[in-house]
Amino acid sequence: MNAVGSEDSSPVRVSLQELIDLRRAAQSLVSKKRRIRAVTTGVYSSSFRGRGMEFDETRPYIAGDDIRTLDWKVTARTNKPHTKLYREERERPVQVCVDLRSNMFFATRGVFKAVMCARLAAILVWRALLHRDRTGGFLFSDQVHDEIKPRGGKSAVLQYLRRLAANPAWDRTLQRSLQPHQETLNQALTRLRRVARPGSLIFILSDFRGLDRVGESHLHELARRNEIVLIFCFDQFERRLPLPGVYHVTDGQQTVTFDNFGGGASRRYEARFEAHFRRLEALGNVPGIFLLSCTSSDDPLAVLQAGLRRSSLLCQT
């Protein structure tokens, strides 16, 4: 078992208790110091764009106030100029978005990609709690998009974990992909653009099956006002076919047999994966976006520790 696994954990689904127990893994993540570019009144300093100001109250205008903060509605109602006052936010919204589409319920070793992403998500939300951030997210499958509004405190983390563990997608008999993969992914990204507050730290955990130009444009727009970490999860079988031979693949209900004799088919198969990976790497070079990849057999804690060493987005901020 890996560092965060247990004898009772399953390779095909997650339990609430397993996700709760991952709090210890989050506590073991060691943050490094990062360069401070802006000071706020919160528990840490932040360089995240668009964060910091939240409406507090309206008061009569005083000479020298910024006219851009005038409250025109109150001014019109009272016939006297009023200005809006803002206060600095003390908590950053952290959105952890998990792909639970049917393509995520696959693995030839380790655990299902969906299980790996759920474990990573649990560590991330516990880590956000330790930094006193507001925690929420988005769980999307072929049928259901479950939005969890960011809130502060342990209760918010537990609500997120309950809804993640109880998501209907884990009952794979209900999984019926009625739309192309790119449509369900684009719908999720469209919704995320609508609900993500400027200055959020957004984690998207997926194999990004079906990512197209529309999806890329959504990510570019999100990165203009937020920081995004893409966590690409894949199985080694998706990257490279096994040695030539006859293989059996099952979804628990049906079994498919295929012959892998290598040659041109294997090269085309590998080329498709590499093209997909290069597309994600290009996104990882966009300012405000960081790409982290893992396989279905990796240790999720080790994956995030490696990310800490490579990117300031995963560090204490």
- What's the CATH superfamily of the largest domain, by name? von Willebrand factor, type A domain
Distance between the termini: 32 Å
How much of the polypeptide forms β-strand, as a percent range?
A: 15-25%
Name the helix and strand elements from N-terminus to C-terminus, one letter apiece. Answer: HHEHEEHEEHHEHEHEEHEH
Estimated radius of gyration: 22 Å
Q: How helical, in percent, are the residues?
A: 25-40%
Tertiary shape: elongated
What is the name of the CATH class of the largest domain? Alpha Beta
Describe the structure.
This protein has 317 residues and is α/β, with parallel strands linked by helices. The chain has two domains: 16-34 and 91-314, von Willebrand factor, type A domain (Rossmann fold, 3-Layer(aba) Sandwich), CATH 3.40.50.410; 53-88, no CATH class. 36% of the residues lie in helices and 22% in strands. The chain is built from ten helices and ten strands. It has helices at 16-21, 23-28, 72-78, 113-130, 154-165, 181-195, 213-225, 236-239, 264-284, 300-310, and strands spanning 53-60, 82-88, 93-99, 134-140, 145-151, 201-206, 227-234, 245-250, 255-260, 289-295. It has a six-stranded mixed β-sheet, sandwiched between helices. Strands 1-2 form a two-stranded antiparallel ribbon. α4 (113-130) packs antiparallel against α5 (154-165) and α6 runs parallel beside α7. The chain is elongated and about 80 Å long. The chain starts with 15 loop residues before the first helix and ends in a 7-residue tail after the last helix. 34% of the residues are buried. The model is unreliable at 32-52 (pLDDT under 50).
